[in-house]
Every structure is written in C-alpha cells, then in structure tokens.
Fold these 2 entries.
Entry 1:
Amino acid sequence: MTNIPIKVKYHHGDLRTSLLEVASKMLNESGIEEVSLRKLANRVGVSRSAPYHHFKDKNALLCGIAEEGFKQLYLMNKNSFNSDSKSTKEKFSLFIHQYVKFAKSNPELYELMFGRAIWKPQNSTKALREIAYPCFQYQVEMTKKWQKLKLLNHSEEDNALRASQVLWGTVHGIAKLLIDGIYTDDSHVEEICDCAVDMFLAR
Amino acid sequence: MTNIPIKVKYHHGDLRTSLLEVASKMLNESGIEEVSLRKLANRVGVSRSAPYHHFKDKNALLCGIAEEGFKQLYLMNKNSFNSDSKSTKEKFSLFIHQYVKFAKSNPELYELMFGRAIWKPQNSTKALREIAYPCFQYQVEMTKKWQKLKLLNHSEEDNALRASQVLWGTVHGIAKLLIDGIYTDDSHVEEICDCAVDMFLAR
DNA sequence: CAACAAAAAAGACACTGTCAAGATTGATTA
DNA sequence: TAATCAATCTTGACAGTGTCTTTTTTGTTG
C-alpha cells in the first residue's frame, strides 16, 4: 500500500544491496564524479554514516559496483566464445567488437572497473580480485585457442600470456581513448574494430 | 643572500610558471590525488585564491601541466622516427617500446595527459588542444609511412587513420593496464612490447 | 603625483569522506 | 516472557576541498 520511498523503519532491512543498486544507477546516470556517499545515503533514505556498517569506506563500495561489471564482462566473453554457430575467425572478430561495445555502452562502469582508484595496491577488495582475475584469465584461454589454430599473425615462440596482454591492451586502449573523449569520432568505432581484427589475423 | 622560500613580496612576479612547476613536482611525487590548489598555493607561498588570477580553475591548471607532457611525447616520437641510423623495422619497434616506457616512467603525468578529466567535452583548454592534436597527428603520419613500406600486417583497403588508431590503442592500452595496476608484473614490459611488435609486423 | 588595473589576501559557502558517541532495534538466551 | 547483546542507524564533529566575493596591496601609466 505505502511503497513511497519515505524512510519509515529504523532498520532498512537490506541496505547493502540497496546501496549497490542506487550507487550503480547514480554512476550510470551522472558519472563517478556525482557519486558521493552523502548523496547516495540521502537517496536511499538513510543517514550519511549508515553505509559504513556495510562498506569499510567509499572504495569498498566502488569495488562492490565493479564486481557486478566483471561478472557481466566474463559472461559476455564466455557466451560468444562458446557459440557453436560461428567460425573461429568470427568469434575473434566478435570478441574485439563486443569488448569495445561493452565499454562504449557502459562508459562510467568501465571507467570504474579499470580505473586506478580500485586497483591501487591496497585498494582492491579480495572479493573484487576473486571475480576479476578469472575474467582476465579467460582472455588468456581464448588467446591460447586462437594461437593453436594459427589464427593470429605472430611467430612460434610467442606465448599465449604475452599475446593476450597485447590483444587485451588493444581493445582496452581503443575503448579508453573512445570513452575518455580523445577519439572524438564515435561514429567510426566499428571501422576501428574491423581494422584491428584485420591487423591481427594471419594471412 | 636570502633565498629562503619565505614569501616576502606581495606580488610574486612569475606565479603562473611557479604554480606549474610546483604542481608538476607534486604530481610526480605524490600523484594527482595529492594535488590540491590549496596545498599548492601554500607550497608556493601564496594565498589560496591567488592562483585564480592565472588559471580559470583547477582544470585549467591541470591542462597546463599536461601541455608540457605532450611536448615531451611529441619530441620523443619525432626524434626516434627521424634517426637515420635505424631501419624502419627498428624504428617501429622503438616507437612501441618508447611509448610504453614514457608512460611507465611518468605514470602520474601520463594518467593526467590521457585522463578523462581534462578531455571531457568542455574541459580541454584551447592551448592544450593545439599542442596535443599535432602530437596525435604525428602518429598518423608515422603509420602512413609504415603502411607505404608494407611493414604492417593488414590488407590494402585499410587507411592510415584507422591503423594508427589501432596502433595507438595498443600502446595506450598496454601502458594503462600497466600503470593502473592491472598488469602487476612490471618486469615483463619489454616482452609484452616485443610481442606487440611481432604481432603487427607483416611476414 | 594621481588614477587605474592587475595581483594577492581574507572571508565565506557548500560540498566531501570519515570518525566517535549515542539511540534504536531485532535476535538470542536465560 | 524478560533481559541482554550485538547489529544497525543517527547525530555531531572535524579536516579537507574548489571557488566565489569583497577588500587590500602593489606596479604602471597618464
């Protein structure tokens, strides 16, 4: 009956997830700059220091948001890599395009996920690392496969880890230059990705 | 005689360059987080609002610092590309290695130069753009040359702009992943760069 | 020398993250 | 059921921050 967001109970009930949800929404809508603990608390209908019972500090909250992003990214890569209806070459192309598209469609989230803020030596939460590392590792696995199938243009002695670091670097770099506003021509994203695919494929 | 940094004159004399110098030092030493206008003003020996007569706001100051970085980067690329004692292949390899090395040796400056903060639509100063764009353009020129000499692995129809965006994306991405703390094994930087070179060269 | 404009200072405001101390609640145990 | 306790939430407070407005000082110029 009364689902007006006016705070009525002293104990919120599920503040932790509420904080994550609303913070994510704020992030998507107005960017990381507009995400402050005080505004967040206000919007959730709770006092400014209530969040501190669920997150050690602001950084821990940000790590929590990023976790969700890495789950998405991991799932996306896994799904496309395991689709039976596509050739290896198509899958490789899909990886490049999808990765950049993910960043372009969730610029604020992507910025957070790979921003130095949460990856500074003592900042990354254990929970975050346990979600992000498998995501990183999966990209190495994909590269290993592509390498075995002689899809990529490089010499024999190159190991999969290095190659995947280069591939990842490429998509990450393109994504970053796009969403940070240095590549200003958003309209040619597909062309850039196509070019990247072309430059990496063995002929 | 008295070169103690105690403020003695009302008018500083050359506050603008002093601010840039000290701010750059603060940036290198302790990172962007530690650069605040108030601390900066304090260290220069001036009131907290004095800087506003030389920079519209904090963002304008940061743009000023970044300018110097782009001058360096431009010069570095130009010098190595014009060295007569090296083969084209060596120059290409040098470009990749040098670029990443530049970022790794000046992490805070690089982060500022390519951070979204100063490149947000209305944030970049005209002066910054006039220094940065030629720097970007030069990378296209280099790529055009490499393309003409059939150094790179890609098909005929690829244009130099797209190829240079991919190349730049690669070095930028590798650099970012390194200095943001996502690639934690700094010791293999050279190997990653070598691998990148190998993957891009035509065979 | 007087007038003016540039440069610097001081006051003030609305933010921010975070901590300490107290209030309220739901759950557990006696 | 009643008392205890820990989790949760609130309020007050502090030291920061960027930036605006008003006032003071200075160098320059007519």
Entry 2:
Amino acid sequence: MGALTIGRLADAAGVNVETVRYYERRGLLVPPPRTASGYRQYGDADLWRLAFIRRAKALGFTLAEISSLLETDATGARSAERVLATASARLAAVEQQMDDLDRVRARLRSLLATCEQGGDDCTSLRPEPVST
Amino acid sequence: MGALTIGRLADAAGVNVETVRYYERRGLLVPPPRTASGYRQYGDADLWRLAFIRRAKALGFTLAEISSLLETDATGARSAERVLATASARLAAVEQQMDDLDRVRARLRSLLATCEQGGDDCTSLRPEPVST
DNA sequence: CTTGACCCCGGACCGAGGTACGGGCCGTAG
DNA sequence: CTACGGCCCGTACCTCGGTCCGGGGTCAAG
C-alpha cells in the first residue's frame, strides 16, 4: 500500500524510470495522482501492472497488444475473449517463427557441413529455394 | 553480360531501387562504373551479389555480417574461415532463439488451456519465472 | 542553508533496414 | 519538340521500444 515515487516504482519493477514514463505516454500505465509539487504517486496496483507488462513482453506480446490486454470494460473486468484471441494469435506467430527457424537451421547446418569439407560452396552460400 | 541500369538490376533481383543505392552506401555493393551522364552501369556480377545478399538475409545474417562475408582478400578469394565462423555463430543464435520460442510456446499453451477453462488466470497472465 | 539526489517536461537520439521526397537532369518514343 | 518515365543526389522519415539530454523545481540529510 506504499505510495511510491516513480524511481521507487521503477526499481521495484526492475525497469528504467524513463520506461515508466514512456508506458504512461503509450497508455499502458494509468496517469497516477500527483503531489502538490507534481510528483507522481504510485500504488501497488501500478506495480502489479508493470509486472504484468513484463510478463506479457516476455511472451512476445507487443506493447500494442499488451495495451489491449490491459483494457477493462466499464465494470473494470478484463475480456477473456480478447485475451484468448490475442494469445492464440501470438501462439500461431510463435509457431510460424519456429518453423522458419527450423528451416534456417537446416540450411545453416548443411552450409557448415559443406564448408568444412573445403567445398567451394562455402564461399558462395548456394541458392536453395528461398521464398521470402 | 547485359549492362543494367539500376532499375533493371533492382527488378531482376526483386528489390527496390532505393535498396540498391542503400546497399552501395553500406558498402555491400561495389560502386559501379557510370555512363557519361552519371547513370550507374551494372553487370551480372552485381546481380549475383544482390542474390547472395538476399540468400544470406534469408538465413538471418545482418547486413554487417553479409558485408564481412562478401569481403575478399587481395587475390579476390573469400575467406572460408570467416564464413565458417560467421555461419556457426548464426547457427548458435538460431538455436538459442528456438529454445526461447519453445519456452514461450509452452507458456502460451498453458495460458490458453487455463483460459479456456474460464479460469481467472486468463485475465492475469500468471507470473511463471521469467529471467529477462 | 546548502548540497546532492530525485523529480518534472519536451524533444532528440539509438539501431536495423530500409522507404519516401523533392528538385533537377537524361533519354527516348511519338 | 515535347512529354513521360528513369535516373541523379541528399536528406528526411518510418517502426519498435525505449534511452538520454538539458534546463529547471523539490526534498531530505548534514
């Protein structure tokens, strides 16, 4: 229940002070009340929010997606539907990336294998159909 | 053996004209001879080089790495050692990314599974140790 | 009361890999 | 000859997620 300054909040969440203000500009954090002299006053809910953002970022969500995930309706409830939709889109993207990486890995391995034989291919990075 | 204008070269390689000039500025393409009026005149070697860049990019090499891959020694030979080193570094990076994605995928799947049960976790994106 | 750490703000900057713009010359088909 | 498309150049702009800067006000310890 502590009232936190921006610096303490940032420390507690393990992010940069500038990042906190950036998130506020981006609409990820709710503008907190201010002291008479203009200092931001944060509470535990803000710390939770920052932690949420960190977790979501670690899962690869963009800030825009996280922003959407954090939106609440008039009653203050988050939409499970939106979370489901966003998360499954993210999962699909992750799986796509893994497929791509798998192909790249195979090509790199064969390049290395050929190259270690001293083959000339080593210096040419042979074509192999690439549809990008 | 055709003498290509920048536009034809770009079309043939499937890239933007601006990209060709950008690569020249970046040192990836050798500044070609010019006509009396200053038009760049490209040959097949340039087309090959652009294709090489495309292939390398598809494998995830950065332009800086590609630049290094394209360097030739005094005799015009590319260094197999450098190719090997760069490619194996890239392979390691790809494998690391795959590991990371694998963990993310698992977490997304469990999030989705919980969420579909209508669990409250759906709206909270549970912590799960994240070391980022 | 002073000093140093903290906070305020708007705006500039980073890196990667381009893309777009604007003013002006060139080249060729009709 | 003229119009239109292609080329020249330098510079600005884009995305993404921050990070830094400079000038100025504030708070707590000594």
